[in-house]
C-alpha cells in the first residue's frame, strides 16, 4: 500500500539524507523507502556558487575609454566636443540618484550613531574621534586643493543651457539660507532636486524613527531595503562609466587640448601624495603620541590586507581580517567589534580628502572658484553626507555630486571630468580609509584601557606573529 506524504520533501546534498520540514530522515527508515513513499513535491537544494567579481573589467573598460577619448579629442576636436553629451548624460543619471542616496544614507546613519553610542564609553569616544579626524581630513583636502590648484588654466566652458546650471539666485543672509532648506511639502524636497532639503527631511525622519523605539524599527528596515535597491540601480549606472568617461574626455580634450590630461594627472598625483602624507604624517604622529606605536610597523603587520585592498579597490574586502588581527594584537574583542564596523561608515579619511580636492579641482577648472564661505559650507555638508559611503561602489561620486549640487549647482556639470579618473583614485581612498580605521582601533583601545600594549609591541616586533587560520565557519 502506498502511503502518500503531504509535506514537501527535499534532499540535503551534503549528507545525502532526505529532509521533511527541515528535519533529516534516516535513509534506511521505512518512511524513506521508495516503495512506501510517494513524493509529491520534491525540491533539490543546491548551494549557489559565489558570484565572480567582474569589477576589474569595468576598470579596464574605463582605461580604454579614457585613451580613446583623449585620442579622439586630439585628432578630431570638433567631434570630441559633440560627444561631450555622453558625459553629461552620465552625470544626469548620477544626479537622478542623488536624493534617494542621501536620504537613505542619512536616515540609517543616524541609527548607526545611536547604536554606537549605546555601547558605552568606547562607542562615544570612537564617534568623537571619527568625526574629528574625518573633519580634519576634509580640511586637509581643501588646503591642498587651494595650494596646488590643479584645475586652474583648464578653462572648461560652462554649458549655459545645462540643466545643472543654477536658475535661482542664492538666498541672502543666514535667515534666507535657513528658509531655503525648509521644503514646501514633504515630497517637494525630492522633486525639486534640492539636496539640502532632502538632507533636512532625512534628519527629521531618522531621529523620528529612532525616537519610536521598537515601533520605528520596521521603518528603518524598509529604508534599509530601499537603500539596497537604490545602490543596485547605482551599480548598474556605474557600468556606463566607460561611455561617460569617453565622452567627457573627448569633449574636454577637444576644448582644451592635451592640457586637460596633464592637469588630471597632477590631480591624481597630488591626491596620492596627500593620502601618503596623511597616513604617515598625520595618523602616524597621532598614533605615536598617544600609544607609542610606530605607524610603519603597523602597516607592515597589515601588509597582506593592504595588498588585498589595492587589488580590489575596496577597504571592506579586508574587514574580517582586520578585526581578527586587531584582536590578536591585543585590543579587546568588544572594542574591536564596536570601532571597526562603525569606522567603516564614519571614519572615511581617504574619501573625505577626495571629496574636497575634487570639488576644488572642478571649481578651478571651470573658472568659478569657491569663496571661503562656500568652502566651509561644503565642508560641513560633506561631514554629514559622507557618512555611510564606504563599501558602496559609486557612493563617492554621488556624494561629490550632492555636495556641488547643494552649494554650487552650476559646477555639477564638471563632475563628468572626474568620472574618468575616479577609478584611478579609488585605491588611494580605500587604503587611506583602511589605515584610518586600524589606527582608530588602537587609539580607542588605549583611551578606554582595553588594549594590552605589551602584546601590541610583541606582535609588531615579531615575537608573537599572527598566523592565518582557515575558518570554514
Automatic annotation (TrEMBL):
Q: Which UniProt keywords apply?
A: Cell membrane, Membrane, Symport, Transmembrane, Transmembrane helix, Transport
Compartments (UniProt record): Cell membrane
Q: Does the keyword Transcription apply?
A: no
List, in alphabetical order, the GO biological process terms annotated in this UniProt record: L-aspartate transmembrane transport
Q: Which domain of life is it from?
A: Bacteria
UniProt keyword annotation of Transferase present: no
Q: Which GO terms describe its molecular function?
A: fumarate transmembrane transporter activity; malate:proton symporter activity; succinate transmembrane transporter activity
| InterPro entries in alphabetical order | Na-dicarboxylate_symporter (IPR001991), Na:dicarbo_symporter_sf (IPR036458)
Its membrane topology is listed as: Multi-pass membrane protein
Transmembrane region(s): 57-77, 89-113, 125-148, 186-209, 229-254, 260-287, 378-404
Q: Name one GO cellular component term.
A: plasma membrane
Pfam short name (any one): SDF
Matches recorded under PANTHER family: AEROBIC C4-DICARBOXYLATE TRANSPORT PROTEIN, PROTON/GLUTAMATE-ASPARTATE SYMPORTER
Q: What is the name of the protein in this document? A: Na+/H+-dicarboxylate symporter
Organism for this UniProt entry:
Corynebacterium deserti GIMN1.010
Amino acid at each position: 500500500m502506498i502511503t502518500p506524504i503531504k509535506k514537501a520533501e527535499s534532499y540535503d546534498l551534503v549528507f545525502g539524507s532526505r529532509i521533511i520540514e527541515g528535519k533529516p530522515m534516516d535513509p534506511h527508515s521505512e518512511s524513506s523507502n521508495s516503495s512506501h513513499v510517494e513524493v509529491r513535491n520534491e525540491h533539490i537544494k543546491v548551494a549557489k556558487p559565489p558570484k565572480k567579481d567582474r569589477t576589474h573589467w569595468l576598470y579596464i573598460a574605463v582605461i580604454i575609454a579614457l585613451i580613446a577619448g583623449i585620442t579622439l579629442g586630439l585628432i578630431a576636436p570638433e567631434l570630441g566636443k559633440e560627444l561631450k553629451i555622453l558625459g553629461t548624460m552620465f552625470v544626469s543619471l548620477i544626479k537622478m540618484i542623488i536624493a534617494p542616496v542621501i536620504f537613505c544614507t542619512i536616515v540609517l546613519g543616524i541609527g548607526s550613531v545611536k547604536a554606537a553610542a549605546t555601547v558605552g564609553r568606547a562607542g562615544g569616544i570612537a564617534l568623537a574621534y571619527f568625526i574629528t579626524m574625518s573633519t580634519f581630513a576634509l580640511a586637509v583636502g581643501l588646503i591642498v586643493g587651494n595650494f596646488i590648484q590643479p584645475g586652474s588654466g583648464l578653462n572648461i566652458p560652462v554649458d549655459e543651457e545645462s540643466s545643472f546650471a543654477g536658475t535661482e539666485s542664492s538666498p541672502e543672509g543666514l535667515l534666507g539660507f535657513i528658509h531655503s532648506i525648509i521644503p514646501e511639502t514633504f515630497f517637494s524636497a525630492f522633486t525639486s532636486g534640492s539636496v539640502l532639503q532632502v538632507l533636512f527631511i532625512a534628519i527629521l525622519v531618522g531621529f523620528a524613527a529612532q525616537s519610536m523605539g521598537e515601533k520605528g524599527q520596521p521603518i528603518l528596515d524598509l529604508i534599509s531595503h530601499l537603500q539596497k535597491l537604490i545602490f543596485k540601480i547605482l551599480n548598474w549606472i556605474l557600468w556606463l562609466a566607460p561611455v561617460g568617461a569617453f565622452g567627457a574626455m573627448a569633449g574636454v580634450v577637444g576644448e582644451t587640448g592635451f592640457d586637460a590630461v596633464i592637469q588630471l594627472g597632477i590631480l591624481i598625483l597630488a591626491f596620492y601624495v596627500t593620502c601618503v602624507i596623511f597616513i604617515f604624517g598625520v595618523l602616524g604622529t597621532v598614533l605615536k603620541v598617544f600609544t607609542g606605536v610606530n605607524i610603519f610597523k603597523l602597516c607592515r603587520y597589515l601588509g597582506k590586507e593592504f595588498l588585498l585592498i589595492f587589488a580590489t579597490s575596496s577597504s571592506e574586502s579586508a574587514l574580517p581580517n582586520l578585526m581578527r588581527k586587531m584582536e590578536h594584537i591585543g585590543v579587546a574583542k568588544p572594542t574591536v567589534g564596536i570601532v571597526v564596523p562603525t569606522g567603516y561608515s564614519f571614519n572615511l579619511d581617504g574619501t573625505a580628502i577626495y571629496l574636497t580636492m575634487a570639488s576644488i579641482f572642478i571649481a578651478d577648472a571651470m573658472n568659478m572658484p569657491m569663496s571661503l564661505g562656500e568652502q566651509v559650507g561644503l565642508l560641513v555638508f560633506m561631514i554629514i553626507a559622507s557618512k555611510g559611503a564606504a563599501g558602496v561602489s559609486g557612493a563617492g561620486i554621488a556624494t561629490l555630486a550632492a555636495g556641488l549640487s547643494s552649494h554650487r549647482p552650476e559646477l555639477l556639470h564638471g563632475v563628468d571630468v572626474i568620472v574618468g579618473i575616479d577609478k584611478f583614485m579609488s585605491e588611494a581612498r580605500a587604503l587611506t580609509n583602511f589605515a584610518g580605521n586600524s589606527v582608530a582601533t588602537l587609539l580607542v583601545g588605549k583611551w578606554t584601557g582595553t588594549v594590552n600594549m605589551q602584546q601590541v609591541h610583541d606582535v609588531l616586533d615579531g615575537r608573537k606573529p599572527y598566523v592565518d587560520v582557515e575558518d570554514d565557519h
